[in-house]
Amino acid sequence: MKLATPLTDEVIRKLSAGDKVTLSGVIYTARDAAHKRIFDEITQARNEKRSPKLSFDLKGAVVYYVGPTPAKPGQVIGSAGPTTSYRMDVYSPLLMEYGLKGMIGKGKRSVEVIESIKKHKAIYFAAVGGAAVLLSQHIKKAEVIAYDDLGPEAVRRLEVIDFPLIVINDTKGNDLYEIGVKKYAVGK
Q1: Does residue 85 surpass a pLDDT of 90?
Q2: Beta strand pairing status for 102-105 and 155-169?
Q3: In which band, very low, low, confident or very high, does the pLDDT at 163 lie, cut at 50, 70 and 90?
Q4: E strands, 34-169, where?
Q5: Distance (Å, rounded) from C-alpha 177 to C-alpha 147?
Q6: Mean pLDDT across the stretch 97-120?
Q7: Is 138 in the active site?
Q8: Of residues 3, 7, 28, 35, which has the active-site annotation?
Q9: Which residue, among 169, 58, 162, has the nearest Cα to 114 in the 3D structure?
Q10: Largest CB tally within 10 Å, which of 5, 49, 100, 183?
Q11: Which domains does the chain have, with CATH numbers?
Q12: In the predicted model, is pLDDT for residue 130 greater than 80?
């Protein structure tokens, strides 16, 4: 299935754990340090009863958990493979509350994140780990838009075409990692 950003509730509801999709449009990069800063800005804005001042609109947005390597001459970006997602779990529910619709990474998510995915009609995709060079070929433009001091972990705006993904957690609470274990468990 071909998807385009920004993601909508209507599109996300149609996705199921295990679906293979390609994503085109704008996505944003953010890892641990950037997530903490975004989380802190939202929390501070809440306490001050104002709108958060973020470098991108979270409504319908997709965040890719990646810290790309530097681009070689003639390249848009260096290797851009997914990082382990659970490190963002403490921040993800709040970002979904503010409109984040998609997350791309690798590995399992916490129960709290999966419940937030269900509640806010979001989606968690996996990108294939170990294929960072191949994934970077789907990135057609990359620019740092926030936290330049974080180097590879700065927030980047990426334009992607047919970025290959697999749905891991869907809006119904299904988890492909659990489905796979049940399906292929020895002795079943």
Answers
A1: yes
A2: unpaired
A3: very high
A4: 62-64, 102-105, 123-126, 139-146, 155-169
A5: 33
A6: 98
A7: no
A8: 35
A9: 169
A10: 100
A11: 2-184 (3.20.130.10)
A12: no
Task: Write down the residue that tokens 């993601």 correspond to.
Answer: 7
Cα-based distances in Å from 39 to 11, 25, 71: 26, 24, 28
Position 186 confidence tier, pLDDT thresholds 50, 70, 90: low
Structure tokens at 136: 């970077």
Comparing CA positions, the residue from 177, 10, 23 lying closest to residue 109 is 177
Q: Tell whether pTM > 0.70.
A: yes
Location of structure tokens 């994934």: 135
d(CA 26, CA 57): 11
Nearest to 100 by CA among 2, 175, 164, 9: 9
* pLDDT value of position 188: 52
Average the pLDDT over 5-28 and give the result: 97
For residues 84-97, average pLDDT: 97
What letters, b where the CB count within 10 A reaches 16 and e where it falls short, cover 39-51?
A: beebeeeeeeeee
Cα dihedral: 148, 152, 154, 155 (round 10): 140
